[in-house]
Design brief:
By secondary structure, the protein is an alpha+beta fold. The protein has two domains: 73 residues, His-Me finger endonuclease fold, CATH 3.40.1800; 53 residues. The chain is built from four helices and four strands; from the N terminus they run ββαββααα. The strands form two sheets. It has a two-stranded antiparallel sheet with strand order 1-2.
């Protein structure tokens, strides 16, 4: 019988907090399961950009200790979701989307005054599309 390495080690790091480390085998299984794409926004992942996210946050008492509860996520989505539930994250994303839409309108209004570059508008617009995509994916979870 093949023995798999310990997949859920705790390793200390600065600040006295604990960082959860996963074996390379577990990280690879999760990445392959999600076709090396972020579960939330769908962006392409590499070994360096892959993070492991818990569907139910680690600090929640009802969390499950298995691969079924883990997803591949980009650093941006994992940090944005943090310890929130999916419904809490959805509310946060809707607020962020509203702020970005306001910012996009402001940028378009002030483009002629040269304080805003077209690149800034493209960046805000692409972030709006990314957040809309995430909201669409999590609305039925």
């Amino acid at each position: 019988m093949k023995h798999e390495p310990d997949t859920d080690k705790l390793m200390p790091f600065y600040g006295g907090r604990v960082k959860r480390c996963y074996s390379s085998g577990q990280r690879h299984r999760i990445a392959v399961k999600y076709h090396w794409k972020c579960r939330w926004c769908g962006c392409e992942l590499t070994d360096k950009t892959l993070t492991i996210d818990h569907i139910v946050a680690r600090d929640r008492p009802s969390r499950i200790h298995s691969d079924r509860e883990l997803v591949a996520a980009c650093q941006s989505c994992n940090a944005s979701k943090s310890g929130l539930t999916i419904s809490q994250w959805r509310v946060r994303l809707h607020r962020l989307l509203a702020n970005l839409l306001d910012k996009q309108d402001w940028h378009k209004t002030h483009l002629t005054h040269h304080f805003v570059t077209p690149k800034a508008i493209v960046r805000v617009s692409s972030e709006i599309l990314r957040i809309n995509g995430i909201i669409d994916k999590i609305k039925n979870l």
